[in-house]
User: Fold this.
Amino acid sequence: MNAHSREESRALARAVLEIDVNNHPGVMSHVVGLFSRRAYNVEGILCLPVGDGTASRIWLLVNEDVRLPQMMKQAEKLEDVIAIRRHGADHAVFERLEEFFRR
Amino acid sequence: MPETLSGAQIAIRLLERQGIRTVAGIPGGAILPIYDALSQSALIRHVLARHEQGAGFMAQGMARVSGQPAVCLASSGPGATNLLTALADAKLDSIPLVAITGQVPRAMIGTDAFQEVDTYGLSIPITKHNFLVSSAEELLAVIPRAFAIAASGRPGPVLVDIPKDVQSQIIEVDAWPEPGAPRPAPAANGELLAQAATMIDEAARPILYLGGGVVHSGAAGLAVQLAEKANLPTVMTLMALGAMPVDHPLSLGMLGMHGARSTNLALDECDLLVAVGARFDDRATGKVAQFCPRARIIHIDIDPAELGKIKTAHIAIAGDVGEALGRLLPAVHAGERGPWRRRVAELQARWPFQMPDVDNPRSHFGLIQTVAACLDRDAVIATDVGQHQMWVAQAYPLRRPRQWLTSGGLGSMGFGVPAAIGAALAEPDRTVVCFTGDGSILMNIQELVTAAEEGVNLKIILLDNASLGLVHQQQTLFYGERIYASRFQVSPHWTTVAEGFGIAAVDLDHAANPCAALMDALSRRGPCLIHASIDVDQKVYPMVPPGAANREMIGA
Assistant:
């Protein structure tokens, strides 16, 4: 497998999660703790407040995995999670960030 | 008329308004303002535990018998870390708790202050939710919300960490919030319920599989009605024991690792599994791929994350199991199911549950049966964790939901005595029995003095094999009989220990008539330790070896 196709398959095997949460210290720990306790790596994290700042939006870039639907259900159960949506790996949010992560 | 109150006074008033009348805990520097406010409460009685884990399990005992959230208190640092096992235990068994911990003052958080630990961070994965309170004002929202979260949906523990300066902060309170109450779960999907009813009607060999959710939901009566109407042989998880009386003709008792062989074989043959408030725990299912291999599955649970977690159901219904069963019941047709009932009876006759030496009250099964014969269904039965727990689960005639208190998911040795004290505090008119082992009891032995202080009507039956029995059993069976670190070379003198802690003690080993001695001890009010030596070579049988399918049981 050449480098290019490996890159391609990695892109295919990723998902982007968009999570609306209440904005207070500790929310990020609650969310990423669900992943770390399952040894499920989070490849990318973005978080900023939205609107008046009472809520935030967390973007997670994660590997596609059979556990992902269960992870989403567990995240949905968190008191501070308002909504969770799943997007394909091609979602613009992380692609546009790439230029900040060049070596 | 606005009142001027401290955060601590507000917290206590909110607990009073929540209907809390007994709390268990241990004071310490960072929670002293709350204790000072508690000392002025005319409504709340504080029970002083001797270790915070004991306080946590006492609150669990109160919550398990009542179904209502119960409260435990601890100080910062080691007080909070000592609570953690009881919180994790409550999380895994879905028990509603509100734990209140003191924290160092806000200005000192993060400075490695004396008795500072990140209680919030430590408790994230073992609570349903947790709070670090940042102002006295916030308590007015957080405490009612903590109770609402603990009791809503799938119940669980909630921790509220309150810095000392927040406890001392004085504010004016104009109005009190409504006490936190459980939010009703969304109604179960009617179309799926109709499909489930049809699937049950069409099944030739169905089994009803009840989990702890049936007890939490108060749905045991409905579950029994459904079983009776549709003639569904019924299995229970460890957590559900008592939901259907074990001597009910449709009861197959506990399933799984230490269930009766006939029960697991019936599951192996069933063509429909109706799972209600159960989560397909590995101790119940054995090797999942081979659990009920011929069955379609209906799964009803209040927690949507449990649906499809372990097994994909053909019909998955999210909702309160009581509400769902109440609507399923009229939609299901009465059915005879003669051939299936006869097949199950045949399995039970072919593989009767073995209770060796049951007529001897000095044997483990004999002792359990003798205790049962002395008591009625009003008694509360608690256990610790180990061989004794499984023998009691197998042999005690549990007949009522909330009669049975046991640490299922976490399997915490040390659970039994403090949980039983909590049960006795919540329901002082009942006799509470705690079956324990010589390994387990030492893990919270200090609470014997709490039992003495409170004068609870608690009878502790100590089955003493001078070893960690389940470890000993596994080493014998699966580790080439290399018994290591599971035999105690020195054992305490148990009756002396009990008497030293201030409770009565009876040693059945030295009783000329053990039945009479037992009956006498059980009939006297107050705390008592009843010691009986048992044979270390007795095993919990039958047993599904770890990782095996449930049909591959060994022993009996």
Summary: Chain B is about 35% helix and 15% strand. Chain B touches chain A through 14 residues (CB under 8 Å).
